[in-house]
Specification:
The complex is a heterodimer of chains A (374) and B (386). Chain A is mostly helical. Chain A is 75% helix and 3% strand. Chain A has 2 domains: 3-282, ABC transporter involved in vitamin B12 uptake, BtuC (Orthogonal Bundle), CATH 1.10.3470.10; 289-373, Arc Repressor Mutant, subunit A (Orthogonal Bundle). Chain A has helices at 3-10, 14-39, 45-64, 69-93, 98-122, 133-136, 144-163, 165-173, 175-180, 185-224, 230-254, 260-278, 284-312, 334-342, 357-373, and strands spanning 321-322, 346-349, 352-355. Chain B has 386 residues and is mainly α. In chain B, helix 2 runs antiparallel to helix 9 and helix 9 (207-224) packs parallel to helix 11 (257-275). Chain B contains 17 helices and 4 strands. Helix content of chain B is 76%, strand content 4%. Classes of the chains: A mainly alpha (374), B mainly alpha (386).
Chain lengths: 374, 386
Amino acid sequence: MSITEYFDLLFTDYTLRTISLGTAVLGIICGMLGSFAVLRKQSLLGDAISHAALPGIAVAFLITGAKDTNILLLGALVSGLIGAFWIRGMISKTHLKSDTALGLILSLFFGFGMMLLTYIQKQPNANQAGLDKYLFGQAATLVESDVRLMVIVTGIALLVVLLFWKEFKLLLFDQDYTKTLGFNTKFIDILITFFIVLAIVIGLQTVGVVLMSAMLLAPAAAARQWTNTLATMVFLAALIGGFSGVFGTAISATQNNLSTGPVIVLVASFFVVVSFVFSPTRGLLFKQIRLLKNRRDLQLKKTLQFMYGIAQTHENIDHPHTIRILNNFQGFTKKSLRKMEENQWILLNKQQWSLTSKGFAEAQNLFNQQTQHE
Amino acid sequence: MSNPQIEIQLIAALVAVSCAIPGVFLVLRKMALISDAISHSILPGIVLGFFITQDLNSPVLIILAAGTGIITVVLVERIQKTGLVKEDTAIGLVFPALFSIGVLLIAKNANDIHLDVDAVLLGELAFAPFDRFLLFGADLGPKAAWIMGVILLITLLLLYLFFKELKVSTFDVGLSSALGFSPAILHYGLMSVSSITVVGAFDAVGAILVVALMIAPAAAAYLLTADLKKMLWISVCFGVFAAISGYWLAHWLDASIAGSITTVLALVFLLVYFFAPNKGVLSVMYRQKQQRTEVSLLTFLLHLNNHQEEEERHINHLREHINWQQVKANTVVKLALDNNLISITNEVISLTQKGLSFTQAALEYIITNKDDKIEHLKDDFFLFRG
């Protein structure tokens, strides 16, 4: 199947439509809430929580014996929340640092979950198969009711984000100020964490425990590069997340043996790389270009300064001098001289240069600017 | 106990010890999550190495995969240095991308590779004894034990040789570079050892258990001691204990060995987390409660000191005035009485001689704000603590 065929089928094929819609919605909610996680410097919280959700799934299965997605996800939600709040407790109550706390919760919960999963697999229970899809996710198993759940949760999350927009924003950037204004920071904090956990749990079925954190991070990290406004960032992140979902599904549908989860993550990572390099204000490419331009400018000014020094010793400023008296230490090259002529700072006449009045004024001003700044 | 059982426990214990040693330094250097990143991102290295060597246990593969681990570390540092995102975001971006590449490589070549993704995360310790190390036709035991043994020996040797340098650079980077040990070399040395250990252990116990074996024993030991040598010993002991009892738990439940070892580690950590003397949660909470009461006591005594008039010192008035709940007020008054700081006559509280000198000392601290004024305060005045 080629990409164009995929887009044709998107509107006719039921399965493909469901999966694409599911991954798109997942991308949107992850991008939206991931922005908050990234800005709160909780990027890896998502990783820890998604791993911590695993024992919840296993325990929910052991208790109910049902394979109903909603019940399993409820279990995941509970154990994800336990993990999230335990991390917080560990950081505040002991001298263990946040990285240790995250790593502990991540590995210990996951290991416990794996033990339970392997234990379940050995049980003589016909229902057991399919739990391990939560490890790497299988977008192909999405059905309409799953997508409906995703849409509902995303709707609620959107509503909450809009309702508490001001509070979330304040808490992100100035926690102490929020507190002095009389907001219940603890409540807002818990609310935001709860929804991040919720987004992670929703995505488990599609991209799985291991890669879920990238879904949360990558769109937000990419969006961050394009804007300094929270609203724009959240919107962009949701957009990028949604696109990653659809493109990832498209690519994995067009090839054999490509699991959807990893492909979505790679597409999102691609967006990150593009943003890192090409963002106009923060991007590496333009930063480098600006750096080179500044360096060239500085070199020009240096030459001009040197010329100014020479011109000052003469009565009339446009007295011509040979080019030879300039040397490399004054940042002079043939190209820079031509550039200076373009700026009408100097006049070139064969092997001689002379300062124009404009160039003289510029050089004088350069010096003044310096003293003014000091 | 049969022979394979002993061998499995031996391998598990070897893995536990070789993980615990770098783990201690990772935890102390606040780089615990790097082990998580490495353990995931070596996957593409392992797959590529497998294409080249066709043997999961070959040393070439271990070196190649460890190389991927170091690339991850460098990549994370590079991204972080651009200032575009914070360090944790950089980690979170790099390893899922590399892991995804690994998963896709496996999926695309599923027919050619004897590797599946479940095994990558979980490892299969139970099968480790079947892969024998044969030299000139003689059976020298399981290959995994030899690999881990060599890695452990190298780790121990490096630890012995560079213990002092590691110690200084872990706790004081500035001092260590002033003394002429390059922190960068030690940093990348530690990263290399961690990568190699992760790769070596990976085949036997899987990616996640490696992380658990690195972080959990070290974190538990860190709650028990502040001495680096003791911390190393304690985490090694915890690791070995978890490895062996985890094996028997798995045997009993018929579950994954790696998962069971992690579960035992979780239990060990949980116990230490709650019950560690001084740094455990219970003792911290107790201490905080104690401090709260003692600060309340101080406020209470200062209040008494400020008021000579009887109605201000009446026991009921105090409750209203300082706005304490009954229980709290009772605790504070009882503590003050026990320590002979106050006396009560006709429900009016007055400071005793001892109480007066206590408030004087406390006031002196409040005015000068010098720690040495308050350091001996509790020892001098308190018979009973809050």
